[in-house]
Amino acid sequence: MSSRTRVGVLASGAGSNLRALLNAVDGDGFPAEVVVVVSNKRDCGALDIARDRGVKAVSMPVNEFGNDAQTRDRAMVDLLRREGVQLLVCAGYNRVLSDIVLTQFQDAILNVHPSLLPAFAGGMNAVEEALAAGVTVTGCTVHLLATGAVDAGPIVSQAEVPVEAGDTAETLRARIHEQEWRLLPEAVALWSAGRLVREGNTIRVVPAPPQRVG
Ligand code: GRF
User: Fold this and answer.
1) How far apart are alpha carbons 42 and 101 in whole angstroms?
2) Is 114's C-beta closer than 6 angstroms to any atom of ligand 1?
3) Are 44 and 12 a contacting pair, CB within 8 Å?
4) How far is the CA of 164 from the centre of ligand 1 (A)?
5) What is the pLDDT along the chain (214 residues), one digit of tens a residue?
6) CA 102, CA 118: separation in Å to the nearest integer?
7) Residues 25, 96: Cα–Cα separation, whole Å
8) Is the pTM above the cut of 0.85?
9) Is 6's C-beta closer than 6 angstroms to any atom of ligand 1?
10) Which residues are designated catalytic?
């Protein structure tokens, strides 16, 4: 088995964050690989991207599990364990994970959210909500998922995105996406290199060890 971190990605949508991660993974020396992509949707862009790139793609809609999310999540954990997944990445996954998943992957689930958390947490319309609130700056957050709250947990990184005059949800979302494509692979690399140290509810990024010469 390679020494790269084995990543499982959960996704429900177009999959642009998955694509960004797969592009990073293909780069020289990236310390992680994506071994499986799981979706709660029967079909979605993320599953297509995974298949195109030769990554195992698995669809697990809840109606195939007696419409019981806990049963589905238990099966999902079994699959992720079989694939040797060490780090889980929620890249546009539109379901709240049950404690079955959260407790199995403690401090090992990264989520990307399109706002500067804790602002506009808890919903699927963070970009629309930011526009409606009239904020002048929004952005995105990568954080570890923790039990007991949605869109909460220690923050790994954030990027600001100014709201421009005339922005629509689509134009603003596009600029937020560009920042997500940068932050998420960076966070996966830091986690994989053991450079994220949790201290209570905060994360400290420790420096990379010096490179050996000779
Ligand atoms: C991203 O904006 C992410 O922050 C949110 O869902 C969106 C997923 O986009 N959780 P994509 O499917 O990666 O293109």
Assistant:
1) 20
2) yes
3) yes
4) 21
5) 569 999 999 999 999 999 999 999 999 999 999 999 999 999 999 999 999 999 999 999 999 999 999 999 999 999 999 999 999 999 999 999 999 999 999 999 999 999 999 999 988 899 999 999 999 999 999 999 988 878 889 999 999 999 999 999 999 999 999 999 999 999 999 999 999 999 999 999 999 888 777 6
6) 20
7) 26
8) yes
9) no
10) 113
Separation of 3 CA from ligand 1 center, angstroms? 28
Q: Does residue 110 line the site of ligand 1, with CB under 6 A? A: no
With the most atoms of ligand 1 within 8 angstroms of its CB, the residue from 180, 181, 183 to mutate is 180
- What DSSP assignment string belongs to 29-89? T-SEEEEEEEESSSS-HHHHHHHHTT-EEEE--GGGGTT-HHHHHHHHHHHHHHTT--EEE
Residue with the smallest CA separation from ligand 1 atom 2 is: 114
- What residue type is 4 in one-letter code? R
Ligand 1 midpoint to CA 124 (Å): 10
What is the best residue among 9, 12, 16 to mutate for testing ligand 1's pocket, by most ligand atoms within 8 Å of CB? 16
Helix axes 169-192, 126-133, angle to 10 degrees: 120
Two structure tokens written together for 94: 């539109």
Atom 6 of ligand 1: nearest residue by CA position: 92
